[in-house]
Amino acid sequence: MKQLIIFDLDGTLAQSKAALDEEMAWLLEALLRVSKVAIISGGDWPQFEKQVLSKITAHANLSILPTCGTKYYQYTGEWKQLYAENFSPEEKKKILTQLNEVVEILHPAKIWGEQIEDRGSQITFSGLGQDAPHEVKKDWDPDFAKRKIIKEALDKTLPEFSIQMGGETSIDITKPGIDKAYGIHKLEQTLNMPVKDMLFIGDALFEGGNDHPARETGVDCIQVRDPHETKRVVEAIIYCLGGSLAQYAAR
């Protein structure tokens, strides 16, 4: 049986930019009692604090890899950053210049917050802005058609970077080779655990999705549609590992 369960965050454990709901929080805590867990997502550390860590009380056995694995936080009594693969000022300037030019392709009727966010080790484009409500985002680009236009353009102008689509409206840009596959290999090294003992669960494992690099590591993967489906997968894993949901179901 697998020793490490790795999750994407937005679209997998929670709706985009939303916190874990009560059921997902207690399922995650139940899983942490029987297995090591890691979460790799495009969001930065403050987003993890808001969406995940504020909703659970058990942090032992948990590793957090923000910005698609370009940063790594491990809990050893307190949270400690192990590494961060940040862009140089020159790299940031080039990415922001090209991204600002390309996003002119899209003209949404309304923007909620900033469309482009500098996360240090990752620059993220959000089609409707960082603060757009979920009910609007979910209908904006469900088939990724709008973002594919931008990705194709950026692949030509920024060939030296990794460009992936994720969440409901976002495109993530990182250094080459610094993606969820990189994060999984960092987990392999840090936890001294082979990839064959890991399982990755995500909603964007398709070609071009920001979960897809995970497949390239050879890790076993489960594609989910949404957090509701993730819950059922987590329940099955807990039972397979000999855990119990009885104490949580009583809540």
Strand and helix map with partners:
Blueprint lengths: L3 E4 L14 H11 L3 E5 L4 H9 L8 E4 H4 L1 E5 L3 E6 L4 H14 L13 E3 L4 E4 L7 H4 L7 H13 L4 E5 L3 E5 L5 H11 L7 E5 L17 E4 L3 H14 L5 H4 L2
Parallel strand pairs: 1-2, 1-10, 2-3, 10-11
Antiparallel strand pairs: 3-4, 4-5, 6-7, 7-9, 8-9
Helix pairs in contact: 1-8
Question: Superfamily at the CATH H level of the largest domain?
Answer: HAD superfamily/HAD-like
Quickly count the domains: 2
Spans with pLDDT under 50 lasting ≥5 residues? none
> What is the 3D form?
globular
H/E series: EHEHEHEEHEEHHEEHEEHH
CATH fold label of the largest domain: Rossmann fold
DSSP E strands, number: 11
**Biggest sheet statistics:** 7 strands, mixed
**Architecture of the largest domain, according to CATH?**
3-Layer(aba) Sandwich
Instruction: Give the proportion of residues in helices.
Output: 25-40%
Radius of gyration: 18 Å
Given the helix and strand composition, which structural class is it?
alpha/beta
Provide the CATH top-level class of the largest domain. Answer: Alpha Beta
In what order do the strands lie side by side in the largest sheet?
A: 5-4-3-2-1-10-11
Mean pLDDT: 91
Strand content: 15-25%
Distance between the termini: 28 Å
Number of helices: 9
Oligomer: single chain
